[in-house]
Design a protein that fits this description.
elongated, about 35% helix, two-stranded antiparallel ribbon, five-stranded antiparallel β-sheet, about 160 residues, alpha+beta, SH3 type barrels, 7 strands, single chain, 4 helices
Length: about 160
């Protein structure tokens, strides 16, 4: 990995997340980062610990060309990764489920007289969700009517 790549990645990640980053070296050795001290022209200076060790607070001078990849050592949502690169508007399935009905970029607006309120979605994911909910409601309404008609014919 090049110095510019490491610098770019660490600048994109929030500083509070740096202590969740692991550097995996070309020989598959892992360094758990506690804090980056300096980005020198040919090596990275940091405080951390070796993977599989409890010896914390050690100093490391790691050549950039020895870093195979950088790993965030926790579960990361796709939307979070996209936000690191400036992309907004992506909603993960988990966030959509946690938000519950009408909490994901939707707002209530007044509808014409007698029509109640209408939900207006402001982003494509919310629009798709709203369309799916409407189709499910329509299908349930049709099935409910069919079931009651069948029950009337059989005498139930």
């Amino acid at each position: 990995m090049r110095r510019e790549d490491c610098l770019d990645i660490f600048q994109r990640l929030p500083e509070a997340l740096h202590n969740s980053v692991n550097l995996v070296l070309r020989n598959q050795f892992v360094i758990a980062v506690d804090m980056v001290a300096r980005f020198e022209p040919h090596y990275l200076v940091l405080r951390g610990r070796e993977g599989g060790s409890t010896d914390e607070g050690r100093g490391f001078f790691i050549p950039y060309d020895e870093i195979a990849y950088i790993r965030i050592e926790r579960t990361v949502k796709v939307g979070e990764l996209k936000r690191y690169y400036g992309e907004t508007g992506y909603i993960d399935k988990e966030e959509l489920a946690e938000a519950g009905p009408q909490q994901t970029s939707e707002r209530q607006v007044a509808a014409p007289a007698g029509a109640g309120s209408v939900v207006v979605a402001e982003d494509p994911a919310a629009i798709a969700r709203q369309n799916l909910l409407e189709r499910i409601r329509a299908t349930r309404a049709n099935l409910g009517g069919t079931t009651s008609r069948l029950n009337n014919k059989t005498g139930s």
